[in-house]
Amino acid sequence: MTGRALFAVTAVIASAGIAFAAQQFTGKMVLRAEDQETGKVYAEIPVEAGDTVEFDWIHSFEHIPWNEYYTVKEDGTFHLDSISVAGFGAGIPAEMDVDYRYEDGLIYMDNIGSEFDRFRFFNSDTALDTIQVNDVDFIKGSDMPYHAKITVYTAGKKWR
């Protein structure tokens, strides 16, 4: 095969590969729950700016509900909008400079405004009840190994 012919064949193969890759590329973000040590992905779901992410915990000492409400930002970070708890006790912030309200048996702390790029925690199926995206279960604590080091974050430009 001549150099010209080899170049033409290589160009056709490369073009076909690029076209295939372009069809497979969604350009979307996903929310991912991943093991920090093994890299195993336990769950993944498409998200976009404005979606809500809710962590529903049971406080490890007080044994009361603790819920955190976030909004996904355009850059994939998380804006903490609100926290709700059934009461105050060990480790629960009681004197934050935020708006407070009482609703359905829970105390809400609103307009917090903290920003997070990811969440890192040791999983406990007795502490983490669920993580929801737009009010739909994303993953439960019981879906991941006990005491696994977990990271929940957004990853951009997911392949189909």
> How much helix, percentage-wise, in residues?
10-25%
Q: Strand-and-helix sequence, N→C? A: HEEEEEEEEEEE
Distance between the termini: 37 Å
Overall, the morphology is globular
- Name the structural class: mainly beta
pLDDT under 50 segments (min length 5)?
Answer: 5-25
Describe the strand arrangement of the main beta sheet, using strand numbers.
6-7-5-4-3-9-10
Described by strand count, sense and barrel closure, the largest sheet is: 7 strands, antiparallel
Number of H/I helices: 1
- Mean pLDDT value: 81
Number of domains: 1
Report the sheet-strand fraction: over 45%
Radius of gyration: 22 Å
**SS elements, strand count:** 11
Describe this structure in words.
The chain is mainly beta. It has one domain. It is 14% helix and 47% strand. It has one helix and eleven strands; from the N terminus they run αβββββββββββ. Strands 6-7-5-4-3-9-10 form a seven-stranded antiparallel β-sheet, with no helix packed on it. A four-stranded antiparallel β-sheet has the order 2-1-11-8, with no helix packed on it. The radius of gyration is 22 Å and the shape is globular. About 13% of the residues have low confidence.
Top keywords for this entry?
160 residues, seven-stranded antiparallel sheet, mainly beta, 1 helix
What is the structure about, briefly put?
The chain is mainly β. The protein contains one helix and eleven strands.
